[in-house]
Design brief:
Strand content of chain B: 5-15%
Distance between the termini of chain A: 24 Å
Number of domains of chain A: 2
Number of helices of chain A: 7
CATH superfamily of the largest domain in chain B: Fe-only Hydrogenase (Larger Subunit), Chain L, domain 3
Oligomer: heterodimer
Number of helices of chain B: 19
CATH architecture of the largest domain in chain B: 3-Layer(aba) Sandwich
Pfam family, one (chain B): Fe_hyd_lg_C
Shape of chain B: globular
Cofactor (chain B): [4Fe-4S] cluster
CATH class of the largest domain in chain A: Alpha Beta
Distance between the termini of chain B: 36 Å
CATH topology of the largest domain in chain A: Glutaredoxin
Protein name (chain B): Ferredoxin
Largest sheet of chain B: 5 strands, mixed
Helix content of chain A: 40-55%
CATH architecture of the largest domain in chain A: 3-Layer(aba) Sandwich
Largest interface: A-B, 16 and 19 residues
Largest sheet of chain A: 4 strands, mixed
Bound molecules: iron/sulfur cluster, FE2/S2 (inorganic) cluster
Strand order of the largest sheet of chain B: 2-1-5-3-4
Domain 2Fe-2S ferredoxin-type (chain B): 6-84
Domain 4Fe-4S ferredoxin-type (chain B): 142-173, 186-215
CATH class of the largest domain in chain B: Alpha Beta
Strand order of the largest sheet of chain A: 2-1-3-4
Structural class of chain A: alpha+beta
Radius of gyration of chain B: 25 Å
Helix content of chain B: 25-40%
Strand content of chain A: 5-15%
């Protein structure tokens, strides 16, 4: 499993670049971002690898990774649930829909359900304001979503 | 204080006080006899400002400010007490308690808890709030140290001591807000973390969130088993500190009372780890002389500190051939009871239960190491309890240690020279080793046997010793953070020393993670407390006639009857060990 996630040459070059700078350790967050951008989450073996390469104790790297909401420590779910929190959607009740999503999935934003099926994310406006509020599951767009629609939508993906 | 330190004058509670620039309000107030209530602050650690218990009012400031984290300023007017401050402080403490179990009567802190004392002092007499409390599993996986996050109040002292004093940085705060927990990397069980088991987190924790792994049940069981011969030993530092567990001031030598107490709880034989210290020195001094004269790997580094061994195997795996192969005094005594002594007394070693009372939590880990087991895989040391655990046992039997008569250890593996007693203090192993090594190399009698340069609480100490014309350079470090500095040099090949002593804990074993909790008005790791404990050991040494390990007649007899000579094959079988890299990698 851990072989799947490696420090790519590109990430390696970035780490080396950071190490050459003043206050090199303050670039930890930037390095973690690169890894998350590549794999969608922060695999433990790479956090340890970063710790060794940047000479930052592993516990500290883990502390930083768990502190910031923008990092996620589990691989993304099979389905990505994206809710638009752009202005139009927001005005039309996206927040209630988001709460309903959180309740149904029992996770927070940027988290993945324990069964690995869903990851909940928020996006900015996706340009379909006429359909607000909008929820996207993978590539499919659901429009005019109400909090009550949420369990129905989720159920469709449960057995897929 | 240097002449050009700028002085600052301020007013605290109406009184003028002059302090050096940079002093915190909290420390300035102490000069006036005002001890602002506090919790996360620790004088030996960086300032965290996490708990806000230490708030005071500063004229002109909008909010109360944390006095530990705020430096004084010229003309500042500080009020440390008022009805509002008192109320606010109490509210803060109540908020902490609202997320804390109500376990004081059954808690291992044994009535000696900083949080409990603070709550009483702040006048908290009721608990109004019954909301959601943190609810985490205890981590009992560690061989030495266990963790109960539910009792943690997030003061971060453990995080700081582990990083700043020990250089291990096993711990960090993870997650955020209500979900914040102090934990090792990846929330791994302690047993799989870089934790060295030193127990300094236990020492500084104001609550019972960190504890030693409880071994008292095994001891009670062994004591009740008529089949077993229970053989006890206890470390030098136990005698110098255990009195504190019964309210005595630090630095009282309780050797005789401890022996009586061990007999009272039902141990059949009571030996003394100091005998093992003499034996360690004879082996180790000979090993050093051999390396020195026959071109072996230098510097040689001592190996008796259990946390240090785990540390070096994780953090400095490339220099393991520098480490003396000698086992620790505890492990040597245990190996001798189950071989030499068992043969002599005609006891089946399988029916011996070796109990070690130690100042150290990491000794629990050492005892369980496969390297410390006999050829059948049975540990030579069956159970290690800390000084604290022994205090609990004695209290539960109503044994009032300070009022016991003194007894002598059982002979054979009980007698020790003064060199062995000082093993507990930083520099003690080096001094004891030099006393013996000098005489081996020169064949002359060492007249001035006090090596004062290696004594004292300085983090790293150095000395040059003239051994018949050869300069021997030695260094001593205590606390793993200090050790790291010396090890970097060894790794680089730039170490100027021939011989290095490392003790994992601040002050040496006397500051071990298993020692009694600091008393009501003493901070854990307090310098005066450590010095008083060390003095007790140096006093014992000074009042002994025999002060060189190789002069111990019982050690000499052991060689004659069993081991042959130092570094012999039999010695190697029982008294020496080896090391290998341990994971995870230390950073
Ligand atoms: S840690 Fe202290 S306050 Fe908490 S239950 Fe134990 S004794 Fe009481
Ligand atoms: S026992 Fe020592 S190494 Fe382990 S967490 Fe505590 S302070 Fe750190
Ligand atoms: S475990 Fe103890 S020392 Fe560490 S943060 Fe919690 S209360 Fe403080
Ligand atoms: S003691 Fe000052 S903030 Fe905790």
């Amino acid at each position: 499993m851990s072989d799947t996630y490696t420090i790519t040459p590109e990430i390696e070059a970035f780490i080396e670049e950071c190490k050459g700078k003043e206050f090199s350790k303050s670039y930890l967050i930037a390095v973690l971002h690169k890894i998350q951008a590549k794999y969608g989450f922060l695999p433990n073996n790479l956090m340890e690898e970063v710790a060794i390469r940047m000479e930052i104790p592993t516990s500290k790297v883990y502390g930083v990774a768990t502190f910031y909401h923008m990092f996620t420590l589990v691989p993304e779910g099979k389905h990505i649930v994206n809710i638009c929190l752009g202005t139009a959607c927001y005005v039309k009740g996206a927040e209630q829909v988001l709460n309903s999503l959180k309740n149904s999935l029992k996770i927070d934003l940027n988290q993945t359900t324990e069964d690995g099926l869903f990851t909940l994310k928020a996006t900015r406006c996706i340009g379909t304001c006429g359909l607000a509020p909008v929820v996207m599951v993978d590539e499919k767009v659901y429009s005019n979503v109400t909090p009550d629609d949420v369990p129905v939508i989720i159920a469709k993906y449960k057995n897929k | 204080m240097t002449e050009n330190t700028k002085m600052v004058t301020l007013i605290i509670d109406g009184k003028k006080v002059e302090v050096p620039h940079g002093t915190s309000i909290m420390n300035a107030a102490e000069l006036l006899g005002i001890k602002v209530p506090r919790l996360c602050y620790h004088p030996k650690l960086s300032v965290e400002g996490a708990c806000r218990v230490c708030i005071v009012e500063v004229k002109g400031a909008r909010n109360f400010i944390a006095s530990c984290a705020t430096p004084v300023a010229e003309g500042m007017e500080v009020t440390t007490t008022s009805p509002e401050i008192r109320q606010a402080r109490r509210d803060i403490v109540e908020l902490i308690l609202d997320n804390h179990p109500k376990d004081c009567q059954t808690c291992e802190r044994d009535g000696n808890c900083e949080l409990q004392r603070l709550a009483y002092a702040m006048g908290v007499r009721n608990r109004y709030f019954e909301g959601e409390k943190k609810n985490y599993e205890k981590d009992l996986s560690g061989a030495a140290v266990v963790r109960d996050p539910n009792k943690c109040i997030l003061c971060q002292r453990c995080v700081r001591v582990c990083e700043e004093v020990q250089g291990v940085t096993c711990l960090s705060q993870a997650h955020r807000g209500f979900k914040t927990v102090v934990m090792p990397a990846f929330d791994l069980p302690f047993a799989e973390s870089v934790c060295t088991g030193c127990g300094q987190c236990i020492n500084v924790c104001p609550t019972a969130a960190f504890l030693e792994k409880d071994s008292t049940k095994q001891v009670w069981k062994a004591l009740a088993d008529p089949e077993l011969t229970v053989i006890a030993q206890f470390a030098p530092s136990v005698r110098a500190a255990i009195g504190e567990g019964f309210g005595l001031p630090p630095g009282r030598n309780m050797q005789g009372e401890v022996i009586t107490a061990l007999k009272l709880v039902g141990c059949d034989i009571v030996f003394d780890t100091t005998f093992g210290a003499d034996l360690t020195i004879v082996e180790e001094a000979n090993e050093f002389v051999q390396r020195l004269t026959k071109g072996g790997t230098l510097p040689m580094i001592t190996s008796c500190s259990a946390a240090w061994m785990k540390y070096v195997e994780q953090f400095h795996p490339t220099i393991l051939d520098h480490i003396s192969t000698c086992k620790s005094p505890m492990s040597m005594v245990s190996a001798m009871t189950k071989s030499f002594y068992a043969q002599k007394q005609n006891i089946d070693p399988a029916k011996i239960f070796n109990l070690a009372v130690m100042c150290c939590t990491a000794k629990k880990y050492e005892a369980a190491r496969p390297e410390m087991c006999d050829e059948h895989g049975r540990p030579y040391t069956d159970t290690v309890i800390t000084t604290r655990e022994f205090v609990w046992m004695l209290k539960s039997l109503g044994i009032d240690l300070p009022n016991l008569e003194k007894s002598e250890p059982d002979p054979v593996l009980g007698f020790a020279t003064g060199a062995a007693d000082i093993f507990g203090a930083t520099g003690g192993v080096m001094e004891a080793a030099l006393r013996t090594a000098y005489e081996i190399v020169t064949g002359e009698t060492l007249i001035d046997i006090n090596f004062n340069a290696v004594r004292g609480m300085k983090g790293i100490k150095e000395a040059n010793v003239n051994v018949s014309g050869t300069e021997v350079k030695v260094a001593v470090a205590h606390g793993l953070g200090n050790a790291r500095q010396l090890m970097r040099q060894v790794e680089d090949g730039t170490s100027p020393y021939h011989f290095i002593e490392i003790m994992g804990c601040p002050g040496g074993c006397i500051g071990g993670g298993g020692q009694p909790y600091a008393g009501t008005n003493v901070m854990p790791l307090d310098q005066n407390m450590l010095e008083a404990r060390a003095r007790a050991l140096y006093n014992i040494d000074e009042h002994k006639v025999l002060r060189k390990s190789h002069e111990n007649p019982y050690v000499q007899r052991l060689y004659k009857e069993f081991l042959g000579k130092p570094l012999s094959e039999v010695s190697h079988k029982y008294l020496h060990t080896h090391y290998k890299q341990h994971f995870p990698v230390g950073i």
